[in-house]
Request: fold
Amino acid sequence: MSKRDEILDVTEAMIRQKGYNAVSAREVATATGIKSSSVHYYFPNKTDMVSAVVQRYTENFLNQLGKPLELVNASGDKYSVLEIKSHYVSAFRKALKRDKKLCLCAVLGAESGGLPDEVSAHTNVFFQSNINWLVTALESSSYQDESTSQTLESNLKETLTNTAVHMLAALQGAMIISQTAGDQAMFDRVANELLK
Amino acid sequence: MSKRDEILDVTEAMIRQKGYNAVSAREVATATGIKSSSVHYYFPNKTDMVSAVVQRYTENFLNQLGKPLELVNASGDKYSVLEIKSHYVSAFRKALKRDKKLCLCAVLGAESGGLPDEVSAHTNVFFQSNINWLVTALESSSYQDESTSQTLESNLKETLTNTAVHMLAALQGAMIISQTAGDQAMFDRVANELLK
DNA sequence: TTTTGTATGTCTATCTATAGGTAGATGAAA
DNA sequence: TTTCATCTACCTATAGATAGACATACAAAA
Reply:
């Protein structure tokens, strides 16, 4: 792995654990076996560095989700609404349980009032992309789903957006509460509610 | 108002906007018209200061909610489940719309991995108290509510805890997304979903 | 083939600003 | 005359950032 990528990895992990302002170039440098001036060689300043982290994180996360219109299960059938939700919840569950850390953008979003504009803008992109992904995925499934056939089509997108924002918000909040309580079962309570 | 309270006010506001590590004693001092050494007169160190902020915040928040077993509406009737939920959602809506700031504990929870233990412990108390409040309030209403009569009583508390954690998580997440997006309507989308 | 040039990645050393915190003087109030 | 609340002055550590030296590697020119 390139040094640049190592720096991004370390920075991401540290921010997810402690927040933007608790991470310094020196600390990142030490953890990657170089000096802080070498960190500045790759990223002229902290804003650039963290912006790169957020962009890469967003990309990776969306890749992990896959294309919202190409989700098929083991039998080759298009995902149902419930399967989409379950798939989406799993992405966050993994992030929490595998890395034992919050979502990067939950942390940055919480601090967003004190971040460089560029960083909070990228954080917002993460949120908006997630909402888009969910709406797109749910939309394609909803047309095949009888339960929504009563809904006027003009309102469908609005309704799905509400669902999407709700899911994203609940999952972000669940990770925060779960981590603060030191109890992963808190996350599962929310995850289960979302799949009811 | 006492200088001590002024310091707590300013500190709370600043943390809610920018996070724990973006707030310094000097900044707090300047905003309250004193010197940083005077801040240390009231609070020997930052951990003490922020712990006091969190405790006061939790107290105030619970006071604002009222006693969970004494909630009555205009007609003098005990709150229904929906009324309880609506009452609870309103408490956060106020915090967001009046102060234009996140919940203090959403911010601290997100940073909790990098906070002094004492501070994150107090943050956790906020979360647990909220969950308790909701479970207690919902419990008293659920006994009167037909829709839950099928539920086995032994499972009721578990079920209500799931609902409570879910609501808290969704509201915290909604505030974060809303603030990052600079769009309060995001919060309302979630609030409406929770009251469906 | 040797030399020279240029880019890459790293370092040491350093700057300025700010952080958290302390010591101890001072003046007003009880 | 002691307590309270404030100040000035200061300390040490760390933050973000920069300048410029140095080594290596590889490519073009002599």
